[in-house]
What we know:
This protein is an alpha/beta fold. The protein folds into three domains: about 55-140, Alpha-Beta Plaits, CATH 3.30.70; about 160-360, Aspartate Aminotransferase, domain 2, CATH 3.40.640; about 360-495, Aspartate Aminotransferase, domain 1 (Alpha-Beta Complex). Helices cover about 40% and strands about 15% of the residues. It has helices at about 30-35, 40, 55-70, 85-95, 115-125, 135-140, 160-170, 185-200, 215-225, 240-245, 270-280, 330-340, 350-355, 360-380, 395-405, 420-425, 445-450, 460-465, 485-495; strands at about 10-15, 20-25, 75-80, 100, 105-110, 180, 205-210, 225-230, 250-255, 285, 305, 320-325, 385-390, 415-420, 445, 475-480. The two termini are about 25 Å apart.
Amino acid sequence: MSYFNHIPCGDTLPLNNPHAISVSLPTISDVCGYEENNEALVSKLKSAYPRFRMNKLVKQVYDYFSEKIALSPDSELVPVCSMSAVSLIERTIGINLECLSQDDFHFVKIKKNSHHISAIKHLIQHTGLIPSSRRAEIFLYDNRIAVNKFTEEIETTDPEQRICTTLAEAYGNTTPENVYLCNTGMNAMFSVFEALRIAQKKNKSIFVQLGWLYLDTMEIIKKYSDESHTILNIGNLDELENWLKLNHNQIAAVITELPLNPQIKVIDLPLLSSLAKKYDFPVVIDATMATPYNVETLKYADIIVESLTKFASGNADLLMGAVILKNNNDICDMIKDQLTEIIEKPFIADIQRLAASIKGYCGRVKVISDNTYGLIHELHKFKSITSIQSAICNDSIRNFEKIRKGESCLPGVISITFDKALQYYYDKLKLPKGPSFGTEFTLAMPYIYMAHYDLLQSQAGRNHLAMLDIHPDLLRISVGIEPLEELIEVFAEIL
């Protein structure tokens, strides 16, 4: 089946892959059903983003454990990636948990009416403590529940070293020893946050959220910090400096994204770096969308977090993250011990899979950047598109020019709005449509519907989006490596 076609609701993205981390939601009605847990819609799902819905292979292991222990209707099993993850949950929430384990696969058993169950599930989601689908696949195979395993390209010769070396060389200002692989991208962000919180708790306790960030990053800062402060306007860092003049002695870190998701706005990173030096605080950047091949980031930050699930993989078939520490950096040296203890290591089969796909990281980003330039140029011709947001559009280009690594470099994600309601165009668009970005196939996502659906349900929520200058019908496009002329034709058909 071609990706430039209607893909049935619930099909895996990538197609026919049990490890897929995205799912086809071809109409706005499907998206709403997905968000509202509509039974008929959910029954169609062959995959989903694994931090939000259980992978089908993990679900089979769940069913095996449930039958094995004759799980009562009033109890539930919650899968976790390790016993150290269980310990983290117990410490964070302040409870003792009953655990079930076999062959290094773990579940927490809890009563459905427990007032802790929501906190447990949200903590696992925010911190990426879920088990790998490949771990589940091997469990099912070893226990003769499944007769075969999915065939895919892997790298078995020093796979972790290959990944760490690739990232260190791409980012510069670091070494492979300063690259730490994590179970998921959110586990990377949480591990950095928690290490900084522990290391500086006595003196510095305020975490600053700079810009409107990814949902779970904001949740980590809000829920698990002793104190936080939010500055939404990244276009003028005077607000940040005025606040720093009074509060800089209490800053644990400033956390931001490059570029912001989904507005695709680029912060003045050199200026932020100069403020960090002046007021002595660390800068943490989620540079997933930028990639180390498009922009210079570690020169201006102390710590980089990257979701390797995205462009580094390109295949949307695994979850993994990385923490990249700057060389010869006092704050990085201070948190290394804590970081090592907190991080949840990825499963070896996922490392082997990423080691194979990361070989194409640099070349993949180059093609995607070229396609993004070409697509933006063509989309400007259509009057039915009312806005295009990218690193080279509107207010971002001046800041982007300061950090881009070359004239052809451009983050491969754009956000667009239309002259009619999103559903009018979205339902007709013959592209893969579902969560995530950074895939080799172009992927469209109605971002607000999938990340902030609750804000669409009230006028207050819509007013909040308007205050943030975020259009509720924004469509985020993750550009792929397909022939550009074919990609343009897909949009021309509906515009």
